[in-house]
């Protein structure tokens, strides 16, 4: 689980990213769909061209969900229950894709906040994203 220092790092980066949630979410998805083409197969019903309204809307939702996790950092499992059911039972996203999405978010954070993105910040966000990802994939059968 996350140390006190890691929690403080996650909260402080969250405060910066929350005011550009749309831009960060959209860029994360653009990076995901251009680097890991197989991830596009889960979104046949979306216009995935860079900058599309659906990318913006979905990017904002993903970042908002991370915000819920940050705000409930001591109780993430409960906060993410609905999303965990959705990804496991309905969407059935291959868990490997969570690693790709997490990586793309980290790259996006590094480009938006270059001065803040120290090795410690990188490590704390990597750990946070792997905890969120394991919650979203733990119900797979
Ligand atoms: C839907 C968050 C990973 C595929 C959603 C929604 C959220 C979300 C908030 C919208 C739920 C709703 O409308 O009620 C997240 C988070 C992730 C993650 C926080 C990782 C940390 C992934 C991955 C994929 C994926 C890796 C596949 C590559 C989808 C799809 C939908 C969805 C296909 C439904 C889109 C739609 O039809 O509106 N996710 N997700 N998710 N997610 Fe994820």
Features:
single chain; 141 residues; mainly alpha; globular; binds protoporphyrin IX containing FE
Can you give a write-up of this model?
The protein is mostly helical and 141 residues long. It has helices at 4-17, 21-35, 53-71, 76-79, 81-91, 96-112, 119-137. Helix 6 (96-112) runs antiparallel to helix 7. The model has no long low-confidence stretch (mean pLDDT 96). Keywords: Acetylation, Heme, Iron, Metal-binding, Oxygen transport, Phosphoprotein, Transport. The zeta chain is an alpha-type chain of mammalian embryonic hemoglobin. One of its GO terms (molecular function) is organic acid binding. This is Hemoglobin subunit zeta. Belongs to the globin family.
How are the secondary structure elements laid out?
Layout: H1 4-17, H2 21-35, H3 53-71, H4 76-79, H5 81-91, H6 96-112, H7 119-137
Helix pairs in contact: 1-7, 2-3, 2-6, 6-7
The structure holds protoporphyrin IX containing FE.
Function: The zeta chain is an alpha-type chain of mammalian embryonic hemoglobin.
GO biological process, one term: hydrogen peroxide catabolic process
GO molecular function: haptoglobin binding; heme binding; iron ion binding; organic acid binding; oxygen binding; oxygen carrier activity; peroxidase activity
């Amino acid at each position: 689980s996350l140390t006190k220092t890691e929690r403080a790092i996650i909260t402080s980066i969250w405060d910066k990213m929350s005011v550009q949630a749309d831009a960060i979410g959209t860029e994360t998805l653009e990076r995901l769909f251009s680097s890991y083409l197989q991830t596009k197969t889960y979104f046949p019903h979306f216009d995935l061209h860079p900058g599309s309204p659906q990318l913006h809307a979905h990017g904002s939702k993903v970042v908002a969900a991370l915000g819920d996790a940050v705000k409930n950092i001591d109780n993430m499992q409960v906060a993410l229950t609905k999303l965990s059911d959705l990804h496991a039972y309905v969407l059935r996203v291959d868990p490997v894709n969570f690693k790709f999405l997490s990586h793309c978010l980290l790259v996006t954070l590094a480009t938006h906040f270059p001065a803040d993105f120290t090795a410690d910040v990188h490590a704390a966000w990597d750990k946070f994203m792997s905890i969120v990802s394991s919650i979203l994939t733990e119900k797979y059968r």
